[in-house]
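Reviewers asked in the last cycle whether our approach scales beyond single polypeptides. To address this, we selected a multi-component target totalling 197 residues and predicted its structure end to end. The input consisted of the following lines:
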Amino acid sequence: MNIIGLVFIFGGLFFLTISCIGIIRLPDFYARTHAVGKSETLGAMLFLLGLALYNGFEIASLKLILILIFIGFANPTATHIMARAAFFSGLIPWFKKKDRNNLDSNEK
Amino acid sequence: MTGIFLGIAIYMIALISLPLYRLIKGPTVFDRVISAGLIGTNSIILLGVIGLSYNRLDMFVDLAIVYALLSFVATVAAGKYLERRRQIK
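The resulting structure, written as C-alpha cells, was:
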C-alpha cells in the first residue's frame, strides 16, 4: 500500500506544479481560471488519495476521502462564480494580436 | 521513509510561494481572489503532509476540513460582492 500511495502522491505533485507554473505565465484571467479550476483540483484529489492510501485503513483516511470529494465539487464551483462575476463586470477576454484591432466587427 | 515527506513539505512551501507573484501583480481583482484560493488549497495539502510526517494525522485532518470549508465560503462571498460592484480594478 505504501508504494501505490507514493505513486499517487507524485502524480498529484506533477499536476500541482503545472498549475502553479500556469497561473504565472498565462496571459489572461479567463485562461488562469483553467489552471486553478481544473488542474489544481485534479492534483489535490490525487495527492489526498495518495495520503489516504499511505495511511492504511483508519478513520483519518476516511476523513481525507471526505475532503477529497468536497474539493472535487467545491473548487470548480468557486472558480465558476469568479469567472461569472468577471464576465458580468465587463472584463473582455484576450485575443491574439492580429484579431485585436477589430473587436467590434465580425469580419476576419 | 519519513525523509521523503520532509522533501515533499519543502517542495509544497515552494509551490505555495508561486501564486504570490500573481497576488501582487494581478491587474484585476479577480486574479487576486483566485490566487488566494490556490494558496488555500496548497495549504490544505501541506497540512496533510505535516500530519503524516509527525504521526498525528487525526489532528491535522480536522484542521484541513475546516480550512477547505472556509476557503470555499470566502470565494463565494467575494464573488457575490464583486458581481454587484461592476468594477474591474
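Chain B touches chain A through 46 residues (CB under 8 Å). We regard this as preliminary and will revisit it once experimental data from Aim 1 are available.
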